[in-house]
Amino acid sequence: MENKVRVNGMTFVPYLTAEEIQRQVKRIADDLRRDLEGKDPIFLCVLNGAFIFAADLYREVNLPDSVITFMRYKSYEGTSTTGNVKQIVGLYEDIKGKDVVIIEDIVDTGLTAERMIADIKEREPASVRFVTLLHKPESSRNGFKPDYAAFEIPPKFIIGYGLDLDGKTRGLKDIYVLENED
Ligand code: 5GP
């Protein structure tokens, strides 16, 4: 693990090691495997941030009849009345009647997660579970609680293990926090 990571003029310091991350990935993978036994779930990785977490989690869950697919949840310019609107992009599989497991990188205010789940439910899946690598409960603006969270963290800005700063730092194996953000 690097002692410090400098990116875009900002300094980040170690926060969660690759070993700690893998331990928690195993823990929620065990929970998911138990809860999904006998089902044929479809895992839905939300790009870009969740791609590394999803790859590790999906392999740990290791349910032979499950499938994984990928989507984006993209903002587009709404009208002045609709404001910031998001939509599901790139999900071509029919999820009607399926047990869906959404894999996200981080839940901050919870607003994205809440709207995404509502959009997914319009496609009439049998069930929806929401998994996140990181959850910042103190930042919540709607009381949203993920079904599974690898880590609950304070409201700090973090990077690494899929999480970016301007598209950079996703490849870091460990997670780093902005320096002096205590
Ligand atoms: P929210 O829960 O506020 O609707 O939005 C969650 C999104 O905000 C995440 O998918 C991620 O793109 C971004 N985000 C929130 N907190 C962080 C953070 O600490 N680091 C990074 N890199 N992105 C964050």
Secondary-structure element series: EEHEHEEEHEEEE
Q: How far apart, in Å, are the first and last alpha carbons?
A: 20 Å
Low-confidence stretches: none
Helix content: 10-25%
Radius of gyration: 17 Å
Determine the structural class based on helices, strands and strand pairing.
alpha/beta
Shape descriptor reads globular
Characterise the protein shown here:
With 182 residues, the chain is of the alpha/beta class. The protein is 22% helix and 34% strand. It has 3 helices and 10 strands. The strands form 2 sheets. Strands 5-4-3-6-7-8 form a 6-stranded mixed sheet. The longest helix has 18 residues, at 18-35. The protein is globular, with a radius of gyration of 17 Å. The two termini are 20 Å apart.
Keywords:
single chain, 182 residues, alpha/beta, 6-stranded mixed sheet, binds guanosine-5'-monophosphate
What order do the helices and strands come in, and which of them pair?
Elements: E1 5-7, E2 10-16, H1 18-35, E3 42-47, H2 51-61, E4 67-77, E5 84-89, E6 99-107, H3 111-121, E7 127-135, E8 148-152, E9 158-159, E10 175-178
Parallel strand pairs: 3-4, 3-6, 6-7, 7-8
Antiparallel strand pairs: 1-2, 2-10, 4-5, 9-10
This protein binds guanosine-5'-monophosphate (5GP).
